[in-house]
Amino acid sequence: MKIRLIYRPTKKDKKIKKQIKSKGRTFRIPRHFRLDRHFMYHVKRRYWLVKKRPWLFRTLMVFPTILILGLLGLFGFAYFYTSDLKDDKDMPIDFGRFGRSDYNRASYVLDANNQIIGRFFYEVRDPIKYKEIPQLLKNGFVAAEDKRFYSPIQFGMDPLATLRAGIIDAGYKVGFKYGNRSGASGITQQASRLLYADDLEEFRERKASLSRKFKEARFAIQLIKKYSKEKIFENLLNMIYFGHGVNGVSEACRYYFGKDIRKDALTPQEVAILVSLNKSPTKYCPIYHKPLLPEINNEMSISEKKKMLDNYETKLAKENTRILIARERYNWVLKRMYEEHYITEREYNSAKINGNELLELSMLHITPLKNHDFGYADRFVKEMLLSTGHDDEELSYSGGLKIYTTIDSRIQKIADEEFQKHLLDVNLEKDKDDKSDQIDGAYIIMEVKTFWQ
Fold first, then answer.
1. CB half-sphere exposure, 419, CA atoms < 13 A
2. Residues 6+ away with beta carbon under 8 Å from 138
3. Phi/psi at 382 (nearest 5 deg)?
4. What confidence tier does 435 reach under pLDDT thresholds 50, 70, 90?
5. Quick check: 279 pLDDT over 50?
6. Would you list the domain boundaries of the chain?
7. Which of 37, 51, 127, 201 has its CA 20 to 30 A from that of 410?
8. pTM metric for this prediction
9. For residue range 337-348, what is the model confidence (pLDDT) as tens digits?
10. How far apart are CA 8 and CA 28, in angstroms?
11. Helices marked H in 227-301
12. pLDDT tens digit string along 366-375?
């Protein structure tokens, strides 16, 4: 349907291009056109927005105003009202525990060169101070987990990230899948959830509910009100579980990379791995767990052999997929560090892990938690400490002791290798089937100093 405008053209009108969208609801009509009343009547009747309606603007402004006032009310409630914050036993939450850094820590046995040769632990954890954390590692966690952590608008939770996550999640529920879904739990919320997981089942089970998210936010607001952001960041990195029995970032560096976080520098690639492990230590583990080959013998039927081989191929494909997903996460963390200007473009490109690289990363230097070469020495040290008044609670749970010994691990390792070779040579002449005929033994290393007058 074409609409014809009736007007008296002027010289200026001839230079203006008449634009009317007959099918749409948007009109661009020059103000000086003299429209007949009949035409404008039909336009206003069909396209009612053509007429100015001040009440519509005022109505539309009410909703954001109500939303802002509601959010301010919730924040005020979470900030000032804490009497209903109780644990599963209906006891008030002790927020002072966060300042005491009340978590389990291991005791360490050190040799003459201050190298760790043994641990007594319930949980393997070596707590560190905020100033001991490498700056690159701090930057990596902030870039990936909470980029506005040090911003003034971050009062325990990031309002912008929370709003974004809520909109994306609502879109997914109605079928509009745009953007990456995320929990929007910042550094402070993660710290509160980890510390009070034993007190609240919601935190322990990490149930996906608005109730848990709101309670996390309330805990985070109380923590940010009572403690500095540096203390919150320090506690978080000491509480994170990094997989394989390792708790805290200090032990994670020692286990995965063979590095002392207090002395050795970390690379961007190592930082990306540590930050990813915080998300999921199982899913993003950098160690390639290749499944064992099935033991097939000639007595098995063809169907049994095929079933075992198919099972092996399935496990292998699953592990290969997991490794690829983990490396995508590492690269994403590196990209976030680059976008926040924590690393240069050259560092970013050199640290990225390509898909054609080996499944077993060369940077990994796995250090077992238990050193079997010094098992007897560790038992002797523990028995001596128990006999002098120390108890197992202090050694394995709360003490965090550093036990210095005069053991020279280098010399002892050489002596042990030579001793095992000697025993093997001696036992070659013995009856292998008769274990009672086999010779075992022990040795003592003594340092004898002679002083001449």
1. 14
2. 233
3. -65, -45
4. low
5. yes
6. 13-50, 123-370, 409-453
7. 127
8. 0.74
9. 999 999 999 999
10. 18
11. 229-239, 249-257, 268-279
12. 888 887 778 7
